[in-house]
Amino acid sequence: MSTESVLDTFTGWAAMAAGAALKPYEFTPGPLGAEEVEVAVEFCGICHSDQSMIDNEWGNARFPFVPGHEVVGKIVRVGDQVRGLKLGQRVGIGWYKGSCMHCSSCMEGTHQLCRTVKPTIVGSNGGFANRLRAHWAWAIALPDSLDPSAAGPLFCGGSTVFAPLLEHDIKPTDRVGVVGIGGLGHLALRFLNAWGCEVTAFTSSLSKQEEAQRLGAHKVVASNDSAALKAIAGTLDFLLITASADLDWNALLGTLRGKGRLHFVGIVPSAIPVHVFSLIPQQKSLSGSPVGSPTHMATMLEFCARHQILPQVEIFPMSQVNEAIDHLRAGKARYRVVLDASR
User: Which domains can be identified in the chain, with CATH numbers?
Assistant: First the structure.
């Protein structure tokens, strides 16, 4: 085990109660695990999931609570059973930072489906701090050609929208729609355009039309316009839902061709009222997925390096974390917010 840069106490920013502003906070990490790496945080994205956890919307936050699960930094310590990583290597850590490594899901490479998978910010301290620890399998090497200041959101939002392309065998000849042009959706447009697909962006605000096209959309459709949805009925192979809003799901299903799939990665607030007759006659499917596996993330980073795809980010000093969170809460982020741990 490396003894370099050993710190008995980590420093970070924590909410002391649900919805509270973050304050400086010190905590003791305990001994480094044999299969863990310790990362000196350089940058950390702010995700809507961080906001939800700060507010304890899901009822599983533990206070004091240190958010942050879109971490980029360099490895400063390694456990004596760490494999494939080394000191000084720059890595990223996303929503998960560990899994059992022996169940059927882990053994078949779908670590994100492990029943005991360990979220980075549920029950432990996250990346709004100077250091973060993770199991070596979940610390994914960042290609040198990708800007570390912008790469953090790839490990959560990027992985979430990239994994379905692999899982559902999306082809370059497919016609694919993306619903919601935000933190997830803007990356999905970039990925799918580089993938070779014909890409349709669905947005409730047609003022985003020019921006959606700049991000990679070939067409833009109003998601709340029933006539516009009817006009493209039966034309799409795959429809990726990145929005967090209740929409006319039967109308959106109607845009799909035979064997088309409506796939959710956004957390919509209400149950999805879909009649089976919207699915059965043309063998359509409804599905959803979390972030990708470590292998999916490594594949995504290779793809991003090849095509120079990065999130569109706004960078705040870590010392201004509360201002950055307020910026996100106000819906002003375009499209992801990243904290610089050096400031």
Answer: 10-156+312-340 (3.90.180.10), 159-288 (3.40.50.720)
